[in-house]
Design a protein that fits this description.
Layout (H helix, E strand, L loop, with lengths): L10 H7 L40 H14 L3 E5 L2 H10 L6 E5 L4 H12 L4 E5 L4 H9 L4 E5 L11 H10 L3 E5 L17 E5 L13 E5 L2 H14 L5 H11 L2 H21 L3 E5 L9 H7 L6 E6 L2 H11 L4 E2 L9 E3 L11 H7 L5 E5 L5 H13 L2
Parallel strand pairs: 2-3, 2-4, 4-5, 5-6, 10-11
Antiparallel strand pairs: 1-7, 6-7, 8-9, 9-12, 11-12
Bound molecules: pyridoxal-5'-phosphate.
């Protein structure tokens, strides 16, 4: 029974205040950073809570507990990168286990899954998860794990997590959702039926483009413990300083998301009206194929979008040379706005054929919308578009 005098903290309160003013030694308000790689035993055969930094670290655990609460999971593991978080799930599978993954997933994810499959560590099948027939056919092959990425990168396709999770579970598969593009401020996959949530904390959770990190949150305590042990066995746990910085970034997650989403909505509407733009991919636009599902399963439409230039690759070059306030760089989710050309940057390794199947054209540009003033961002884009 919830205690009416002590109701649970709301998510934005957890992000802002988790671990604040809990320092028993000096009453430090900001949580201290523990860098020590090893811990003194209390005596013969008397390990304390922590013994060795690869297996456990107080700073890393604080971030893990904050993320587990935010995602509504039972526990979490903090890893050295988003790829390490994904690989924690993949490398734990048995040889021959099948992963059903989206055909338009992040390029690095596709590279990892193919590399693991090529070495016989698992099998992988890529399907268009918005195609019910393709999903049903994939599930007939009895996958051990269904990986969902929604909205997808870079085309912002939205998949119905609850519906996919229901079908995957009926087929006996575990369900993992990569929630990097939205963060728990906007989407909480465990409440929709996921068993695991994966993050590149490099992105919105840290939010300041100064950490590479990852996290995996498990719905069940037993799975969380197993993942924690597996991370210690393979040694993919994250560095304490990175965890400390990420917890610091997490404080402002909800406020950042609010402003960044609002900027993204204004930019999507602007691009949608511009004659040099042939297509805008943003679930916040009423004409987007995933608008209804996104409205239902998300608390906002996120701050990522992509668009296609009518003038093809020449237009892309001119735009990139003339746009202001958007830095040409990979990654996303920071306070600063970025523009990326997926075909030559984030998704180059996929190869032209896989890109064509996924619908990623050479005219496509992806924006990570930051915290700058909306008017400046639109003026900066206007400058780039005027040159195409
Ligand atoms: N998942 C998604 C959706 C991503 O966009 C990325 C990186 O861009 C990753 C995972 C991998 O994360 P990291 O770069 O932290 O290893």
């Amino acid at each position: 029974m919830p205690d009416p005098d002590n109701p649970p903290a709301r998510p934005s309160t957890i992000a802002a205040a988790f671990g604040v003013a809990e320092d028993a030694a000096y009453g430090a308000v900001a949580p201290p950073l523990y860098l020590s790689s090893t811990y003194e035993f209390a005596g013969y055969d008397q390990a304390r809570r922590y013994d060795y930094g690869r297996a456990g670290n107080p700073t890393r655990d604080q971030l893990a507990d904050a993320l587990a609460q935010l995602e509504g999971g039972a526990g979490a593991v903090i890893t050295s990168s988003g790829m390490a978080a994904l690989d924690l799930l993949v490398s734990r599978l048995n040889a021959g286990d099948l992963i059903l993954a989206p055909h338009d997933c992040y390029g690095g994810t596709m590279r990892l899954l193919k590399a693991r499959a090529d070495r016989g560590h698992c099998a992988v099948r890529f399907v268009d998860q918005s195609d019910e027939g393709a999903v049903a056919e994939g599930l007939l092959a009895s996958p051990a794990l269904v990986l969902i990425e929604t909205p997808s990168n870079p085309l912002m396709r939205v998949n119905d997590i609850a519906a996919l999770a229901r079908k995957a579970k009926a087929a006996g598969a575990a369900v993992a959702v990569d929630n990097t593009f939205l963060s728990p401020a906007v989407q909480r996959p465990i409440a929709l039926g996921a068993d695991y949530v994966v993050h590149s904390t490099t992105k919105y959770l840290n939010g300041h483009s100064d950490v590479i990190g990852g996290a995996i949150i498990a719905a069940s305590a037993a799975e969380a413990e197993d993942l924690r042990q597996w991370a210690s066995i393979v040694g993919s746990t994250g560095a304490p300083f990175d965890a400390w910085l990420t917890l610091r970034g997490l404080r402002t997650l909800f406020a950042r998301m609010q402003v960044q989403q609002s900027n993204a909505m204004a930019i999507a509407a602007f691009l949608d009206r511009h004659p040099a733009v042939s297509k805008v991919h943003y679930p916040g636009l009423p004409g987007h194929a995933g608008h209804a599902v996104a409205s239902r399963q998300q608390n906002g439409f996120g701050a990522m979008l992509s668009f296609e230039l009518a003038g093809g690759v020449d237009a892309v070059r001119s735009f990139i040379a003339n746009v202001r306030f958007f830095t040409l760089a990979e990654s996303l989710g920071g306070v600063e706005s970025l523009v990326a050309h997926p075909a030559t940057m984030t998704h180059a390794d996929m190869g032209a054929e896989a890109r064509a199947i996924a619908g990623i054209s050479d005219s496509l540009l992806r924006l990570s919308v930051g915290l700058e003033a909306e008017q400046d961002l639109i003026a900066g884009l206007q400058r780039g578009l005027a040159a195409v």
